[in-house]
Amino acid sequence: MGDECDRLLLELDHWLHGELPNDRSTALRDHLEQCPPCFESADFQAQLKALVAKRCGEEVPDGLRQRVLGFLQDNQPS
Fold first, then answer.
1. Range of the domain at 54
2. Distance (Å, rounded) from C-alpha 78 to C-alpha 10?
3. Concatenated DSSP letters for 32-43?
């Protein structure tokens, strides 16, 4: 993974929430189309967000919260 991948991972959550400007959103989407590791990470996070929203409503069980936080901490760019 390179610098562009690191930037993408930092912006991924904002992108999934539709919070990025159009130009950055387009650049991020283009990168995802050409970078399988980043695409897999984005896909996983999108599915996780959808599952949490569907199953947990407003209250997230502590076990899930800890697993998600652990995953995010383990996958932060250096």
1. 3-74
2. 11
3. HHH-HHHHHHHH
The answer to whether the beta carbons of residues 13 and 20 sit under 8 Å apart is no
The pLDDT tens digits along the chain (78 residues) read: 678 888 888 898 899 888 999 999 999 999 999 999 999 989 999 999 888 888 776 677 889 989 999 999 888 876
Structural domains in the chain (count): 1
Whether the CB-CB separation of 11 and 28 falls below 8 Å is answered with yes
Q: Is 27 exposed, middle or buried (0-12, 13-18, 19+ CB in 10 A)?
A: middle
Distance CA 24, CA 10 (A): 12
What's the angle, vertex CA 57, arms to CA 56 and CA 59, rounded to 5? 70
